[in-house]
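Onboarding guide, step 5: your first structure request.
Type a short instruction followed by the sequence, for example:

Predict the 3D structure of this protein.
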Amino acid sequence: MSGDTTPGEPIGVRRSVTPETDFPDPSAANVTYDPSLERLREFSRPLETTTEYGSPAYVSEFRSRSADRTRNDVDDRFTDEDWGLVQRALERVSRMELVCLDRMVGRHPEHSYCCRLFVPREYGRIALAWAKLLDPASEDRDPDFYTLQLPDWEETAIRVLPDPGVTVVLGSDYTGEAKKSFLRLFMYRAKRRGGLGLHAGTKRLTLETEEGLSEVNQAFLGLSGTGKSTLTGHGCWLESPESAVMLQDDVCALFPDTLAGSEGGGLYIKTIGLDSEEQPALHRAATQPEAVLENVAVDPDGTVDFDDGSLTTNGRAVIRREDLPSAAPEIDCERADQVFFITRNPLMPPIARLTPEQAAVAFMLGESVETSAGDPDRAGESIRVVGTNPFIVGPEGEEGNRFADLMSETDAECFVLNTGSVGSKGIEVADTISILTAAAREEIEWITDETLGFEVPTRVPGVEIGAFHPQENNDEYESKLAALREERREYLAGFETLREEIREAIY
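The system replies with structure tokens like these:
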């Protein structure tokens, strides 16, 4: 991207930021503070294609997060160059026309934060999409977190200062950078307060039992693009008085006494292949006038094609919770009864039940496949991401220890959930939903598989579970499994702070 920054470092680089004084005053003449959604759309009108549904669609230059250009001063040793980037960005904004918005991440009285976003006025579309994801902030609430996003910069660099709550996004116009800048800090603060941030969606199933109606809260940990939104938003074909409602789609904060959600306004969903029959609720919400499409194929006449990945397979839609029939009014719950680690490992069964120690192993392994949301050039490759959470700040081994402690306090059941395929046998969304519902009803019959080292299902109502045996759907299964276990041992050995009892629970 082009820019008018001055090359080189400023004289006297400061190695600190005080957001209250270093960021622009919202009342300054060059700042438009808290404009309406309609006005934000007006700022972005030259870049908009209006869809057949009346919603705005935009195409950004950057179409995924720049993970390889992101550094934080907790895990990375900031140089004068890093601090210089931050300082020059803060100095430049005094000469720019800016939009400033305040929104709330979280609703819990003890675990919610006011977030302030600054973007150039001509990039109001970023603020428009971000604003629809979160609840408005009250007028008397001071910001906890600050993000400055300047797309027209001479290089791409994201610099994060977790303790003062500051993120500077330079040289990227991707909305996901603004969204994750605040969620990253939300999770970091949760850990500092004795909890743990989770890259997870949550839902609540209300089911009939012999004792009456019973509630089961499910949490899904998974990388972007592996099915969190589909699973959390699915109604599980339940009929009144039973129900399944989405609490949170993307990021939560786990504490012994609560599972706090983060985004109260909307969801930032992947749209490639979005189908009105497979995902009717998400499709309906994405085709509402209030949705915002980003990098989705839209013809000049406004026709939308969710199957066209010519722009990117990481096309996105910001959709409103109120347009999802399955969205609950609340985003928090008291506990997680069942935790599912979403994987796409073809050696894994559709579902497996884990011991508490194995659950901590699953958390640390974070086995999945790379998606276009993370690195489009590596999409489809097998990867490991601790907690399936690429936004961790601080030692990753401590995350595993904290997760194990919280699971022991909450007494949650933990599972590995394969949403991809078992060898050559594909797993359909309908199969996964039936499995989740059966798990909530405690209708799955289990047996310990000595080869795999954990419990696998022998019966799941509504699913031909026998067709998904890993041994029968993978050639050379035993040798592949042995190699996988050795890889896992070597991987876990790399986390110095991870407790030994977790390392020894490898499966």
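Each response can be followed by summary notes, for example: The first strand starts at residue 31 and ends at 33.
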